[in-house]
Amino acid sequence: MLPGLHGSAVLAELMRQRPHQRVIVLSAVPEVGTRVACLEAGAADFVGKPFALAELLARVRARLRDRAPGPAADSVVIGPICLDLALHRVAVDGRWTALSYREFLLLRHLMEADGRACDRSELLHAVWGMTFDPGSNVVDVTVRRLRAKLDHPDRIETVRHVGYRFATP
Known about the structure:
2 domains; 3-stranded antiparallel β-sheet
């Protein structure tokens, strides 16, 4: 019942961008189907309105004790490259290097694309949240910085007239 937006769309986008984020849905639509859909979409809990403040606080404390939802893995590993999802750093052959936030998001997106080429508009949307191409070279600059940090510049391939892909060994 959000104005101009459906809550499930907000939840889906939040879980896409921050899969480890714990979300408690507060909703005036307490039907079982809605509750199940939200929980299956990644919500940690669901509280129907009206609710007692004491119950909400107890649920928040319970969720803080739980592990975050999402994949059990705390890293993405492809060949000699290990991306630490919690600490936003990358290891190449066991040597760790810190990444900026955008470098981390870009590398994660490319690694999770399973060898598929990602075009610039997809990368701009996934990493910078842009729904249009501002005509800048921000993607290219970030790819160049990542290549230098990976010590394997060929790991991120340029796919002509498309964009970039993470090359699997």
